[in-house]
Amino acid sequence: MPASNNVFQRNANTSLVAQLIWKQGGLSRVDISRTLQLNKSTVSNIISYLMDIGLVNEGEHREAASQGGRKPIELTIARDFGCVFGFDLQPSHYRSVIMSVDGSVLWEVKGTKRQISFESFVLSVVDEALNAHSGIQIPILAMAFSIPGQINAKEGTIIYSYPFGLRDYHLKDFLKTRYDYPIFIENDANCAAWLDLHSTLGHDFSSNAVSVVADFHEESKRNDSVVGIGAGFGVIIDGNVYHGSHDSAGEFCSITWNRGNPNQSGLSAELLKKTIDDREALSEWMVDTFSSLVPFFAIMDFKTVVLHGNPFEDGAWTRKVLEERVPQFMGVLEKIGCDLVIESKDESVSAKGAAYMYLHDLYSVPGLEDDMSDRRTWCDIVEFLQFQKEEGRG
Question: How far apart are CA 304 and CA 194, in angstroms?
């Protein structure tokens, strides 16, 4: 119907403008009109609306064009419009961030929560963030969670998480009984991919890339059933994180893996436990892992591969091992023109990526095939934020 089409088009254009300001910032109304090929009056009306709801601020006046005229005004996303909580939950530790809608990190923390149930773990981490948020005074838009394992992001379900020993667990439903915020659940490596898409790759929505997240499992020193190291792979295709046919894209098995092995490779548990403090063992794990990726990279023709996590902390040593012991992997990167980026210093990569996952959704342009019943319009978001302010929550 025409009315519905008009509402859809208005929401789509509003998202287009908001997304462009978020991605680039410092643009004027004329820049936006020219880039999006929208009528100037349409852009002006949308900017007026976005300023009225508090999402966009006017900034500095830029120099006028050589032919004269009024100086254009730069537009930016307002930091205090709203924020999103990002959580990365692992059996041995957690990372939490509060991120504003412009991508600024307002608060972050890391810690451990051992010998408690998974549900108690989740609630304690969320409550810690809520306590921290009480001093920020910016309304909450959503909570986003990074979990290791096979995740149905659409349903908010943990299909299977070997690290947590969970299967078919409805985490979103559990959280919705306690919190009235939108809840997002995603695999930890996929969350790193969302971060890379918007940070390392600079909002390049045409990107084809892989985010590798590796981590030492310190608890393996105390628990024989825990593997000493693991890795996940977030796959970005044409600017979107790829989930696969069964929500298990990125769940890695090396070429030495055998049927029935709960680990990712056929390497011995003894060797995997040594990787934490034995560089020779870590080198063997890298050889097993990256030699397994050669056919995958040759076929997929990625532009960038980003390595995250403590196992890659010494970037120079990591490159040396790959060059000397896995030359076929480095060779295929050179053959297809794929850049190797090592970003191992940030321990909160998946927590920040979880927050970016929500921001990507917030600014994304709705498609005709989208289920609009599960998607909030800008009017819905403003109403929800106003409700929080009236309750004194932001």
Answer: 14
